[in-house]
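Hey, sorry to bother you again with one of my protein questions. A protein chain has come my way and I'm curious about its shape. It would help a lot if you went through both lines with me. I owe you a coffee for this, so here goes:
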Amino acid sequence: MESWITTNREDDAADWRGWFLLFWLVAAIWLIQYKWGAIHWFALSDTDDNMRFAQVRALLDGQGWYDLRQHRFDPPNGISIHWSRIVDLPIAGLILLLRPILGGEQAARWACAIAPLLAMGAGLYGTMLTARRLVSPQAYVLAAAILACAQTTVLMWMPLRIDHHGWQLATLIIAIAGIADPKRVRGGVTTGLATAISLTIGLELMPYLATAGALIALWWVLDGDEADRLRAYGASLAAGAAAGFAAFASYDNRQPLCDALTPVYLSTLLEAGAALVLLAFVPVRSLPVRAVLAVVAGALIAGVFVYAWPQCLGRPEHITPELDRMWFSHIREAKPLYEHSWRIAVPIMALSVIGFGGSLFARWRARGTPLAMPWTVVSLFSLFSMLLLLWQTRAGPASQLMGVIGATALGQPILSLTLNHRAMLVRVLGSVAAFVAVSGVFAGLIINWIPEHKTAYRRTVDTANRRCPTLPALKPIAEMPPATFLTFTDMGPRLIAVTHHSAIAGPYHRAGSDILDVQHSFRAEDPEVAHEVMKRHGATMLLLCPGMSESTVYAAENKKGFYIQLNRGTVPKWLERVELPKNSPFKLWRLVG
């Protein structure tokens, strides 16, 4: 143990942290330059990014800290959002800091550009630290380089990508760095707090984090000397979850719901933390006895959960079959990877598969050493994330992030051979080829080499998706008096983020009835369905963006539906056309009857 500590620890800490700052600064500058146009036009491309900004703006305008209802969806009722304020803090703080210097609009632009880069810094630091602890003290350079090639992961840290996924990825890799920490107490606290912060943000990574906790307990079973890590992990997990709930749980999340850190999961985390602390204090030298105690503790925690919260044993969103069929099943990131094109699937899988293979190789090399359990965690997480890709593509960023660690372990010995080879050709071309192979860059090269053929229909959809959310396209609408709109659910977040208007619904599962109202309005053949929905929700405007992805679903699933009727010019008498500039991608009507 002592030799492992001295070999892999803080001998050149100051140097590597300086390199981390340099890498992060260079990456941040490059990404800002890359997204310069999008920053200028405030192109929050994702619905969740727009919703996050709307949430921050409402907070700065005086909405209560614990009130996370979005009152500009289905006003005046609002819809419940299952997020927490924790990710709002850096965005709001940057806006307040920059507003006196840049003014309101520019402060918002730059706050949304900079905030994701802070999450990237945390993720980069965790990745480099994990590579130092698991591979070698110098492996952080290779890990940073491979991470830069993990396109799906890096996309979560792009300027303007202010949704919570980037922060969750950072907490995931920091949790692994804690497991790899030879200083048991510090490592336990790191993993426990990273887990608590991640679950306070959202439950998306709960399967990974639950597995990490189970493996820390297993580590104690196999090695009683790990009691300090187990105790520190359990105490920090429970304390962090309690603090996260107290500080960030919204009024709605204080109900026994299953899709956020509510009393359901808070109670479970408190029970688990207390159980782990108690186990760590038990002076048992026998491995079989420790195993029995761990199994009993796990069974008790699971049993209490099943008895107290049976409603949370199924799907956490609790959406109805109708909502799943009409809406959720059409969400691209919720589809399995094999339903996407090979251009999307291959780059994600390339690094994920290479990383999994590298983690198995490193686990084999680490057998019988203190690094065996941390590499077991990385291997299982890599495998787990790849399997999740067969369920939902949204597992891609975590899958690639896990792949970075295994790919670093695989690439380090290969590059050591090529870089130290006698022949210059091998040192140069061999090292480049090795990096291209282990980093998964070859997948992107193949895609760029094979031209993509897009049909006219696909180009039309891409154009609509690109034009409709832009500030110039929305400007004529933003200049109109405030109103509530019946529009696509995917258009709702952008509408409320950059105008003073409201919408009936946004793409958030707690607003299931509102989403169905929108779905029924555009799918039904009888226009009176939409008429009734508009009256019931107080909507006075109807907005279409023909060709936008959501509209293709309505067009494909009912060719006689209300959306098709409107798009072809068959308009009921209770709607009056509102003229927009000739180049507008929108069609707009006003309710007149």
User: Anything to note?
Assistant: DSSP finds 27 helices and seven strands in the chain.
